[in-house]
Write a structure and sequence with these properties.
It is a single chain. The protein has about 70 residues and is mainly β. The protein is built from no helices and 5 strands. Strands 1-2-3-5-4 form a 5-stranded antiparallel β-sheet, with no helix packed on it. It is globular.
Length: about 70
């Protein structure tokens, strides 16, 4: 549906349901932010993202429930 960057990593939106994004999050080794997956907890949520393990090194399934608010 859409592709964008988050903290230098690549986000591939595959679906949006009830305002929540779902898709693949690709961790690029050259960035300073590296996600942590958490199967049973949202304690590692970052900017509304919750990461789950996926097949492949540096690839995560994600759900994003709230976009960050940026002030001008």
């Amino acid at each position: 549906m859409k592709v964008y960057t988050h903290r230098g990593n690549l986000v591939v939106v595959q679906s949006v349901t009830e305002g929540a994004e779902h898709g693949k999050y690709i961790d690029l080794p050259v960035t300073s932010f590296h996600p942590v997956s958490a199967w049973f907890s949202h304690k590692h949520a970052v900017d509304g993202f919750v990461f789950r393990p996926a097949c492949g090194t540096g690839v995560f399934n994600y759900t994003r429930t709230a976009a960050p608010v940026y002030s001008k």
